[in-house]
Input
Amino acid sequence: MTEFPRIVFFGTPEFAVCSLESLLQGGFPVKAVVTAPDKPAGRGLKMSCSPVKDYALNHALPVLQPVSLKDPLFQQQLHDLKPDLQIVVAFRMMPKSVWSLPPLGTFNLHASLLPQYRGAAPINRVLINGETETGVTTFFLEENIDTGKVIFRERTPVYPEETAGELHARLMILGAELVVKSTRAIIHGEVETISQQELMVTGVELKTAPKILPEDCRINWGKPVSEVFNFIRGLSPSPGAITELNIKDGTAMQMKILKAIPERLPADATPGSVISDGRDFLKIACADGLISVNRLQPSGKKPMETPEFLRGYGRLFS
Output
């Protein structure tokens, strides 16, 4: 294969920008970018483009924004680009007519060690489940989602208090490096893929990573403190772990808890009850300990540190 294949890049969020940037810095000729259509955002509902489109336009790359990947016009535009290789990072499901087009194939970057954590929310689910290791995987697309043959995997530890936002930032960089490594290996014919079936370990549960829905975000204070802590960091900063705290007047205040520390000491309190001095600390009882809240976001308000929150609302809890 030529040293300079024609590459088409598919991606939408900031996570994908890092890979696109690394490809360009590596000298790989990205001929076009495919990303999501612009959509209204903010209070004024002003049309906003994806981070990938913004980056592509700033680097004079052609941009395609199909509403449907099955649109005949889009598919003709893709054929006209004559891609040798397609690279997918944080995009949507593709029809076979798209991923099977280039002679070198279409590969995807996934933010887990496949076959573990197939699905839309691997970073969140890894943390919620209290895993101590994760990573990134590149694999060729096939009919079923996240099941294609693996090109490379790169492992990394999960740090004990790491949030989804912090792990996202690390995997974004690690993933970009793996995308470049995979692209180079494919171009030079140095790839020896392995089926995900061969990577499965007998007796080890295959865990999935389904999309996080609003109803999945509510904290269950009746669970052990370690599970509640992992749940909070797995949803931080977005979409955020939601709870309602009872206050003195008998009503409840809804909020997201964004950062916390587990205290594995016996909590002589009903799960979900609040312990606070009204000034410096806010703790919530779990089944076998306390969650000490460091950062939170009351409904309709900005995120804030606990002392700032208590300056305004501390009298309601002390």
User: Anything to note?
Assistant: The chain has a mean pLDDT of 94. The domain at 7-199 is CATH 3.40.50.170 (Rossmann fold). The CA atoms of residues 152 and 181 lie 9 Å apart. The radius of gyration is 23 Å.
